[in-house]
Amino acid sequence: MDLAGQQDNGKSDKDTEFRRLIETASIDYIDFGCSKGGSLAFAKTRFNGHRGLGIDIDQSKVEKTIAAGYDAIRYDIHDIPDEKLVRFVVLSHFLEHVPGNADVKDFIRKACTISNEFVYIQQPYFDADPYLFERGLKLFWSDWSGHPNRMTSLELWLVLRDLKEEGLPITFSLHAYRLIPDSSDPRIHPLASPVNQFDYTADVHPPKDQFVQFDNNVFYELICLITLPGFDHVEQLKKLRYNRTIIDSSGNMNTSLELRQKVHLVREIGRRMLEKLKDVFSIVGIGTRK
To answer: Contact at 8 Å (CB) between 108 and 161?
Structure first.
């Protein structure tokens, strides 16, 4: 379905069509910027979604989502009626593609306005960019032309704070997922790597020091949970995957490594060391040599 092409003077009709779609299809969650449908699948499993609707302004992505077996329409998020429509909204790896901060704020406000329970945001982790830059390194997603909005946790917090001060009745917390303990991780590139790359490969990309241990927080993803009045924030957090809380729902900052992050760090370092030992000593399995 393509509701984006209707004329502006048919706004009321457009709203009615959108409401009818949500009701007749028993849609209980919406994915902003559905891409290929992966986030719809994620939300269905992680948050017990019944039936999701993907929204994108790119018709080719809508078609890919439909081909993957999910419902999707070409639609402008700004045009969604400002009323409670679904249980929750997902913005998964979406905001980094939005070039303007005004749109970012509008999209988050819209998501909160139409949700009855919560809004879930996940995006690449950009907080570590200055730290890595000083060491001649970068995360590959921080050098993508398709990521004009490299929003840090501070910038996201500022948007959420302003929305709350403007009267939006929300509770929110920020978290980080999947620690990167050292420069051997394939997501880490040397600065000399070209733009728009994926995982680092030694025989393709410029050389990098793979033995730099990070003494600062470097993660894969920034996670944000926003809950609406009457919905339990703490209980919903139990369904999220994260390794560190940056700021909790009471506004308390966490400036140190949490226990779960320390455990993850030790495991990651141990795994990396074992892999390096296997390379050095040609170990096929633990305690077994070729």
So the answer is: no
Q: In this structure, are residues 120 and 43 in contact, taking their beta carbons and an 8 Å threshold?
A: yes
85, with CB counted inside 10 A (0-12, 13-18, 19+), is buried
pLDDT in the model for residue 183: 98
Return the structure tokens found at 260.
């779960």
pLDDT at 268: 72
* Residues 165 and 190 sit within 8 Å (Cβ to Cβ): no
Q: Any bridge partners for residue 174, and if so which?
A: 224, 247
The pLDDT score that the predictor gives to residue 5 is 45
Numbers of helices and strands, H then E, in the chain: 8, 12
In angstroms, rounded to a whole number, what is the distance separating the alpha carbons of residues 229 and 234? 13
Percentage of the residues of the chain whose pLDDT score is greater than 70:
88
pTM of the model: 0.86
At 199, list the tokens: 């995982």
Tokens of 257: 């490594």
Helix, strand, coil percentages for the chain (3-state, nearest 5)? 35, 25, 40
CA distance 2 to 62: 10
**Mean model confidence pLDDT for the chain:** 90
Q: What is the mean pLDDT of residues 260-281?
A: 68
Is residue 34 within 8 A of residue 54, CB to CB? The reply is yes
Find, among 148, 32, 135, the residue nearest to 79 by Cα. 32
Token pair in block for residue 11: 């706004």
SS3 188: strand
| Residue 245 to residue 264: CA distance in whole angstroms | 14
pLDDT at 9 over 80: no
Which residues are paired to 245 by β-bridges?
175
98: number of Cβ within 10 Å: 21
